[in-house]
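Researcher: Good morning. I'm working through a list of sequences from a screen, and I'd like to move beyond sequence-only analysis. For each chain I'm collecting a predicted structure so we can compare shapes side by side. This is the next one on the list. No need for commentary yet; just the structure.
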Amino acid sequence: MFGNPGKPHAREAVESLQKAANAKFEVVGAELGKQISNAAKDLDRIVVVGGDGTLIGVARSLGSRQVPLIGVNVGKLGFLAEFLLEDLIAEFDRAVGDDTLITRRATLEVQIENGGVRHTSPAINDCVIQAGPPFRMITLGVLLDGAHLSNVAGDGLIVCTPSGSTAHNLSAGGPIVQPDVDAMILTPLSPHSLTHKPIVVNRQSRLEIRALTVNEGTTAIIDGQESHPLRPDDRVIVRRYPHDFLLVRNPKHDRWHNLVAKLHWGQPPKYE
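Model: Good morning. Structure tokens for this chain:
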């Protein structure tokens, strides 16, 4: 069990869940703000108490040792962290023991290079390239499987997973993609063109983004948790990460529950 110490009531939630679990399960650790240990490969589940950012941070830290995560939301929206505390206490046996509740989520590998690899990281939600200070328009060359696709001039580009399609991508006008689709989405940010629209491509593709014209503050941001400055001629390579992110869904909810209940997708207009 892992709790975000920055979230109100996280400590109390971890303690309550530990009591609920102790009768039937071996709880290896109940920590706030500690790194997941190398023993993660021997665990059946990791309970993450926080919000979506906490859940993403734990998934990223696991790397190739992915363990199904049970997200308990004590944050704001809770799109990935589907359980409320009382939900998980009521459904604890099933959440831990029922493997049919495990969903596999596409994860991307982001590699930044220029004459050599400078950084490699998994991306659960997205990699966002933003123009940054002094906020002049930047130009990014986009290649797909080695073939030149387009040069995108504007404020940047989002590359996201289906799980991340409801994050920054949604705000930028990108498509909502069902979480279990094996794809990645490219969404230009404020393109200086009427023809650059978001596209969805197979996750087996190799996407290469070249920094043709950038600002001093142009940055590649991974999952909102890592920031890497981009220099002229840098390349950002995005492709399939070999280890999927594993998430335990709330059995009380259908697959579209969060979209409808939390973002109010498809709700009819209100007539006064």
